[in-house]
Give the backbone structure.
Amino acid sequence: MIDLILHLDTHLLAMAHEYGYWVYGILFLIIFAETGLVVAPFLPGDSLLFVAGALCGLGALQMEWLMPILMLAAISGDSTNYWIGRVLGLHLFDLFIGKFVKQEHLDKTRAYYEVHGGKTIIFARFLPIVRTFAPFVAGLGMMRYSMFVMFSVLGSVAWIGSLTVAGYYFGNIPVVKNNLTMIILVVIFISFLPAIIEFIRHKRKSAT
């Protein structure tokens, strides 16, 4: 998995040559799983989109196919995760989670998503791991689906669009292309940076 993430350009280019148009289906499944299954937050997201955009710049993939397919994967993954949280999550809460988490915490989660759920769904798109759990928690928190899907579409379009376009225009610049492994690590670090900053802030507040 580490080798796949650090050498995405090589692996993705090989898949494009070997599988042809089927590579779009493979990318769909990766983005869908990373977004829609709470057990798959380890799959590449941001870096995958950047590299896929770079391969579009090389002509190995077609942007007019890539963007709508991956946007559909992100949106449908979000909705799947939401309904897993809404249907299965409540059963899990009654059977297991409720033994460790008080009902008042679930009520607070529902109240939070009712007020701040929209921006949470959009911002979560750009945060690894968080984007995998946010739809599940939104479903568990009984966020209105009409509101959820509206912000899910906005977030998915912004996430897929920004990173694939960035890869398309910058991924094949010689200094970027020759140091793509380092660029991937930087993309991953930047993705985790807001969570790291929030963790530090929380620690400082706890210490005071």
User: Anything to note?
Assistant: The two ends are 40 Å apart (CA to CA). The longest helix spans residues 63-95. The mean pLDDT is 79. The chain has one domain: 2-207.
